[in-house]
Amino acid sequence: MTQSVVVQVGQCGNQVGCRFWDLALREHADINKKGIYDEALSSFFRNVDTSDGDGPDIYKGKIYSLKARALLIDMEEGVVNEILQGPLRDVFDSKQLITDVSGSGNNWAVGHKLYGSQYQENIVEKLRKAAEHCDCLQCFFIIHSMGGGTGSGLGTFVLKLLEDEFPEVYRFVTSVYPSGEDDVITSPYNSVLAMKELNEHADCVLPIENESLFDIVNKIHQMANSGKLGSTVKQNSLVTSSAGRAKTVQEKPFDAMNNILANLLLNLTSSARFEGSLNMDLNEISMNLVPFPRLHYLVSSLTPLYTLADVNVPSRRLDQMFSDAFSKDHQLIQADPKHSLYLACALLVRGNVQVSDLRRNIERLKPSLHFVSWNQEGWKTSLCSVPPVGHSHSLLALANNTCVKPTFIELKDRFMKLYKKKAHLHHYLHVDGMEQSCFSEAISSLSDLIEEYNELDATKGGPRTDPSRLKIAV
Fold first, then answer.
1. How confident is the model at residue 49 (pLDDT cuts 50, 70, 90)?
2. CB 47 within 8 A of CB 65
3. Are 331 and 381 in contact (CB under 8 A)?
4. What is the pLDDT of residue 236?
5. Are 9 and 152 in contact (CB under 8 A)?
6. Is pLDDT above 60 for 229?
7. CA-CA distance, 202 to 78, in Å (whole number)?
8. Between vectors from CA 144 to CA 343 and to CA 135, what angle results, nearest 5°?
């Protein structure tokens, strides 16, 4: 069994990470009734004998003390301290934390250039320690936001470090993109500067937009409150609300949105953690869904939405779940993949679903989806027999699709509005190692990426030609 290490950076990264570890523990507790340390648990947790300080790892048998395979980084102490005082405090120890007190001031340059060089040795040392505890380290998951200073700046600095130190280990990045109404004025600068690093150093990026998360949470609340579907409160599901945790605490405004991301990561890794008739390794996602190195942005959708809520809603037909995965209402960015071009698509299904159900739905949906001419059969599928807690089945769709392009175009436009006036540039340029060329290179990198998507879109709608068969001379 392979292991993964989660690196959560900045306020957003640590808040999402907190929800992930909480829900992961609840998922394993629901399945692992005997309290035995098994291979599924070992994917994200060490089993440590803490009776004698920080004792040795115990590789089988009963659970002693579970420690998350994680590194928590933030240049403000608030969120990390909150985690250490909450119900998850025993899952982490001080050797997994890197904090400062002053923050990055919503400035990518401070996070990347200043704190990056200041904390580089410490970060590398802790990453190596986490790696040493793994038998077969397959993947690093980075969780961060693009709009702030620490998440965007230090988060992408850590990404580059991972490439340098662990070049063979896959780097999956969950990046939360700010909305147009973001309260951080400099977020377009931070996001575009971070995008250049994601283009160059990530294997796969899962872009998430705050606006989409907000819309989904509102839909779930409407579903729960309408009563027309006969919904009742469900106590044990993996949830958007935080009810049902070991200790009831006041729910924070972003908990519901962060839980959606936590569920995304749980579904993404379910096949690596649990048995199934059609398992998909994490490295297979990158291998099958990323035909060109820079076009590694995967649009994700979760369905049914009620698997994210504390409500009992009558199950919709299985086929409807597949249809929903391709509708714009279920995407985690503001996009409509059905009207754009697919390079490839992965369907990660959990629960009581058969291979025949998968094949039937792919054949049913194929005529309405536009795939590039050279990859008409670009589907990758997985079936994990363990469903989400409290539900019968779920589906995570990952699409390498040109529908991500408008998000990047809007980001570029917001960047240029500030950059044309050279507004706020001085805050960045006074940081050692930061030059104006960093801005021009970053916007050039983003423009090149958009152009690559444009070139693909230009091929959409052309005649579908089957590749000519190999002719054998007789």
1. confident
2. yes
3. no
4. 44
5. no
6. no
7. 28
8. 80
Spatial contact of 362 and 325, defined as CB atoms under 8 Å apart: no
Given a cut of 80, whether residue 431 has pLDDT beyond it is yes
Are the C-beta atoms of 66 and 21 separated by less than 8 Å?
no
Beta bridge partners of 401: 342
Mean pLDDT of 403-422: 96
C-alpha to C-alpha distance for 445 and 284, rounded to whole angstroms:
27
β-partners of residue 72 are 8, 97
CA–CA distances in Å: residue 445 to residues 146, 269, 408, 471: 16, 30, 11, 42
In this structure, the dihedral spanned by the alpha carbons of residues 210, 303, 297 and 376, taken in order and rounded to 10 degrees, is: -150
Q: Give exposure, 348-376, as e/b (b: 16+ Cβ within 10 Å).
A: bbbbebeeebbeebbeebeeebbbbeeee
Q: Which two tokens stand for residue 172?
A: 């999956």
The pLDDT of residue 232 is 46
How would you class 460 by CB atoms within 10 Å of its CB: exposed for 0-12, middle for 13-18, buried for 19 or more?
Answer: middle
- Beta-bridge mates of residue 397: 301, 347
Angle at 44 between CA 43 and CA 49, to 5 degrees: 100
For 62, the 3-state DSSP assignment is strand
Within 10 angstroms of residue 320's Cβ, the number of other Cβ atoms is 13
| Pick from 258, 264, 294, 293: nearest CA to 408 | 294
Q: How many other C-beta atoms are found inside a 10 Å radius of the C-beta of residue 218? A: 11
Maximum Cα–Cα distance across the chain = 77
3-class secondary-structure state, position 8: strand
**What pTM, to 2 d.p., does this model score?**
0.91
Residue 93's SS3 state is: coil
Q: What is the 3-state secondary structure (H, E, C) of 94-134?
A: HHHEEECCCCCCCCHHHHHHHHHHHHHHHHHHHHHHHHHCC
Q: 175: helix, coil or strand?
A: strand
Q: Which of 346, 55, 8 is nearest to 175 (CA)?
A: 8
CA distances from residue 150 to 14, 86, 116, 458 in whole angstroms, order as listed: 11, 23, 10, 37
